[in-house]
Amino acid sequence: MAATAWKLFYRAKRNLGAGNINLTTGAVLKLSLHKTSASANLLTSVASIFSEVGSEIPAAAGYTAGGKALPNVKWTISASTMRFTFSSTGLAFTATGSALSSIRYAVIRTSIGATSGRVICYCALSTAQFDLASPNTLTIIPASGGVFTLV
């Protein structure tokens, strides 16, 4: 299944500009999985903090509330092209013992607690909700050009 491009939240742009979001190497960012019912808050991009997104999939079957930390977070600055690129390596979720249910969206946020922080961006992983049967794995790999680029 093909995912959509990552979309920055409107308020994330403001928070980046104000220095309220740290994307430097070593920053702790998390990726969480959400149901279709989160779309009201995602598609309008009005959310600023994680609790405003809502509709996270249940903490069960190997999934932890708040998601998983993104590995190898990197903020690259290209002096020649004047582009700033945020990237990380892939992240896998494995259904253990039962299915991970009703997955549709992925959200990246800062992590100031298990289920708190400022939201940065999201993508639709599919056009409809899907279940990940045990013992299958869902791997989310950012595009080779990074999660997003500021020009």
Descriptive overview:
The chain is mainly beta. The chain has one domain. Helix content is 8%, strand content 33%. It has 2 helices and 12 strands; from the N terminus they run E-H-E-H-E-E-E-E-E-E-E-E-E-E. It has helices at residues 10-17, 39-42, and strands at residues 7-8, 29-34, 68-69, 74-78, 83-87, 91-94, 100-103, 105-110, 119-124, 130-132, 137-140, 148-150. Strand 4 and strand 5 form a beta hairpin. The longest helix has 8 residues, at 10-17. It is globular and about 50 Å long.
Question: What is the structure about, briefly put?
Answer:
This protein has about 150 residues and is mainly β. Helix content is about 10%, strand content about 35%. It has one domain (about 5-150).
Number of helices: 2
Strand order of the largest sheet: 1-9-8-2-3
Assembly state: single chain
H/E series, N to C? Answer: EHEHEEEEEEEEEE
Radius of gyration: 15 Å
Count of β-strands: 12
| Range of strand content | 25-35%
Round the mean pLDDT to the nearest integer and report it.
90
Number of domains: 1
Largest sheet: 5 strands, antiparallel
The helicity comes to under 10%
Low-confidence stretches: none
Distance between the termini: 29 Å
Assign the structural class, choosing from mainly alpha, mainly beta, alpha/beta, alpha+beta, or little secondary structure.
mainly beta
The shape, in one word, is globular
